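Saturday, quiet lab. Running sequence design on the structure tokens for the scaffold JK sent over.
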């Protein structure tokens, strides 16, 4: 009986030790909460919580960045319905995220370019009441710092310059006015 009690006490002690190490390890690697960041006078990162699991709209590469454009279910439904090519407006509540990485060569296939370090993430949301000055769209850019694993709002020092409000994307998106300011094309799947 004494041996069994000693054995179970030792087993319980090991379980507590393993649990403590796992908890400390998870907290140590957690980094700052990206969902607490907000563009002054504009969008909050938290408004796009879960964007990492949204469906892919398209991918792009411009020589300086590789990007994946993601859409929430409302945006994907709009694309599948033919919006914006059919001339209808994107519905309020539709959201897109564009994640940029610095390109690098694939170690196994040198002709292939793959994502390297993340550069930033851009967000846009259709909300006609909240963003009438942005043609119904609100925008945000959050630069990524790999050294600190943090995101910060884009600034006018960025390329392209980003204003500190929800209208930072208006100038770029004006070229797609006939497509309700969406220049990303939905890729056939």
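Result came back. Writing it out in full:
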């Amino acid at each position: 009986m004494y041996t069994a009690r000693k054995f179970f006490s030792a087993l319980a002690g090991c379980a507590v030790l393993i649990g403590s190490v796992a908890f400390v390890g998870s907290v140590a690697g957690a980094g700052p909460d990206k969902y607490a960041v907000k563009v002054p006078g504009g969008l909050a990162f938290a408004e796009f919580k879960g964007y990492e699991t949204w469906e892919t709209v398209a991918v792009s590469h411009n020589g300086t960045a590789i990007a994946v454009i993601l859409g929430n279910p409302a945006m994907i439904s709009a694309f599948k319905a033919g919006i914006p090519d059919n001339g209808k407006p994107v519905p309020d509540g539709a959201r897109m995220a564009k994640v940029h990485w610095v390109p690098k060569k694939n170690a196994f296939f040198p002709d292939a370019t793959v994502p390297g370090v993340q550069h930033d993430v851009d967000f846009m949301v259709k909300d006609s009441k909240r963003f009438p000055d942005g043609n119904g769209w609100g925008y945000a850019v959050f630069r990524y710092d790999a050294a600190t694993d943090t995101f910060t709002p884009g600034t006018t020092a960025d390329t392209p310059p980003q204003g500190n409000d929800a209208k930072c994307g208006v100038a770029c998106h004006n070229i797609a006015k006939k497509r309700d300011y969406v220049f990303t094309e939905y890729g056939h799947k």
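Notes for JK: The helical segments are 2-28, 73-80, 170-173. The CA atoms of residues 47 and 136 lie 16 Å apart. Ask whether to fix the surface positions before the next round.
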